[in-house]
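Archive transcription. Copying these from loose printouts into the bound notebook so they stop getting lost. Printout 1 of 2:
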Amino acid sequence: MRRIFLIGYMGAGKTTVGKQLSSRMGLSFIDLDLHIEARYHKTVRELFAEKGEEAFREIEKKMLHEVAEFEDVLVSTGGGSPCFFDNMAFMNQAGKTVYLKVSVEELTKRLELCKQTRPVLQNKSGDELLRFIDESLQKREPYYLQASIIFEAEKMLTESDVQTIAVALEHILNQ
């Protein structure tokens, strides 16, 4: 019975790597945000807007505890999931945690391309986007660094790069 939790900032590749890695390891894949959306029949954006961040984080914690009951699963968490309540300690107790570590500069490049799908980033660009990511990553990284495995996931431009990361993580997790 295995449980793996992928954590990291938005744009770090948790879902992309998670799908490949779970397939390689024969694990079910769960994107925590999509699990929440399926359960509540609303997008994360809608839940945030309607209920506020505090209520959303309560829902997120409840759903995290639910999926942590599953066996042979890889969970891609939301970027903020580890930073609230006792979520990081809980995940470390329930299974293996893997922090996909990516530099602020690389995150900025990745997120510039998809910022329209991320409400918190929509009106930011260039230096403003970089500063926002830097500031929020500084707040979140103390939680991320509590992961049992810290993996540099800087180079993820191609499908081949994703495969290379998945293979390397599979090797580390199987040791």
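Printout 2 of 2:
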Amino acid sequence: MAVPPAITSTREGAALLGRVAPAEHLELTGVFAACHAAGTSCGGALVVVNDVGPEAQAQWQANHAEGSRRLVEALRASGFLGA
């Protein structure tokens, strides 16, 4: 997981990032840092709904609701979230 300082919005930036990690995530890193600073354990469950690059925002808008639904469904099926 790469954590760039901003959303990668160009094909060139996506190609460079792809050499470092298969995915990027900005927000969860802040949560992990805050929990670490507070001495609190944490974890995250992610679903990939878009590619990195110029089309990322449109892909995210088109796919995030279904991706989130499927993630919650998988977590429930695993017993992690209960029934």
